[in-house]
């Protein structure tokens, strides 16, 4: 099952590999939950879902709290008149002016499904700036939302730095971390999914926290590109190599080398 959100680096194609590394446990913690493809394809008793992007967490909260009424509210934005360039930019402007609310959460889904190439991007002012996608008939993910909401009954949410999610972990928990990826050689890489870039010091911090979590009896699995920097930073983890067919940039689709770094 795929998430109802389109998201850069979604894990639907490799969730089977990830699952085999996670195995089972009482609680799964995701410090970078994103679209939630790993969450919905695992079976833990409890989940802690964190993302620094509050729009992601808010849409999850409304889906859990209101379910059918929220789905119906979102569906109105998927009728014909809303699929035009002028209407898209009008609603994007409204979205950027709104406080966090049911309307903003619904518009986040609208922008996510009508925007270009499944991107989720904000400028330095925190304004959503993905251009119009020009899809003939954007898909409304009703069934995906219903399935997702059924899983959310077992989930609690955070919107904080990934380090705070690690601090919530206890012995026996499992952490799956899907951070913004290291840049591929010769490729441009975008890491500012919430308006703030994820830099090398953040990558080092994640590896350090993972090693410390392992020492406390907490298993950690990290996804990333298989590049020299990731090999160096994850040198004390077990490595699983993957070949993944995915979109590397807005204009290019190719096979990328990825890895799973396992701290256990």
How many structural domains in the coordinates? 2
Report the sheet with the most strands, covering strand number, pairing sense and barrel closure: 7 strands, mixed
From the alpha carbons, calculate the radius of gyration and give it in angstroms.
18 Å
Helical residues, percent: 25-40%
CATH H-level superfamily title of the largest domain = Vaccinia Virus protein VP39
Q: Give the class-level CATH name of the largest domain.
A: Alpha Beta
Write down the CATH topology of the largest domain: Rossmann fold
* Beta-strand percentage range: 15-25%
Provide a count of the helices. Answer: 10
- Topology pattern, helix = H, strand = E: HEHEHHHHHEHEHEHEE
Give the mean pLDDT.
93
Spans of at least 5 consecutive residues with low confidence: none
**Through-space gap between termini:** 28 Å
What is the total tally of β strands?
7
Shape descriptor reads globular
Structure description:
The longest helix has 16 residues, at 200-215. The relative contact order is 0.17. This protein is globular. The chain has 2 domains: 15-52 and 153-263, Rossmann fold, CATH 3.40.50; 66-144, Adenine-specific Methyltransferase, domain 2. It is built from 10 helices and 7 strands. 37% of the residues lie in helices and 18% in strands. It is of the alpha/beta class and 264 residues long. Helix 3 (54-66) packs across helix 6 (102-114).
């Amino acid at each position: 099952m795929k998430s109802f959100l389109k998201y850069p680096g979604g894990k639907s194609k490799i969730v089977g590999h990830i699952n085999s590394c996670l195995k089972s446990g009482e609680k799964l913690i995701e410090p970078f939950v994103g679209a939630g493809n790993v969450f919905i394809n695992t079976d833990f008793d409890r989940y802690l879902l964190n993302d620094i992007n509050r729009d992601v967490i808010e849409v999850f909260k409304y889906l859990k709290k209101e379910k059918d009424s929220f789905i119906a509210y979102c569906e109105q934005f998927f009728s014909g008149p809303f699929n035009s360039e002028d209407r898209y930019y009008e609603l994007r402007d409204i979205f950027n002016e709104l406080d966090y609310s049911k309307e903003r959460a619904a518009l986040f889904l609208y922008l996510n499904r009508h925007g270009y190439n499944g991107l989720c991007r904000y400028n330095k002012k925190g304004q959503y700036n993905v251009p119009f996608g020009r899809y003939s008939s954007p898909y409304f993910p009703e069934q995906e939302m219903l399935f997702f909401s059924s899983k959310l009954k077992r989930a609690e949410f955070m919107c904080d730095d990934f380090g705070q999610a690690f601090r919530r972990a206890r012995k026996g928990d499992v952490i799956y971390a899907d951070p913004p990826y290291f840049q591929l050689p010769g490729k441009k890489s975008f890491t500012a999914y919430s308006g703030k870039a994820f830099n090398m010091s953040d990558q080092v911090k994640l590896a350090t926290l993972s090693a410390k979590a392992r020492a406390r009896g907490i298993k950690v699995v990290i996804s990333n590109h298989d590049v020299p920097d990731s090999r160096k930073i994850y040198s004390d983890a077990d490595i699983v190599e993957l070949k993944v067919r995915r979109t590397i940039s807005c204009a290019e689709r190719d096979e990328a080398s990825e890895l799973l770094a396992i701290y256990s």
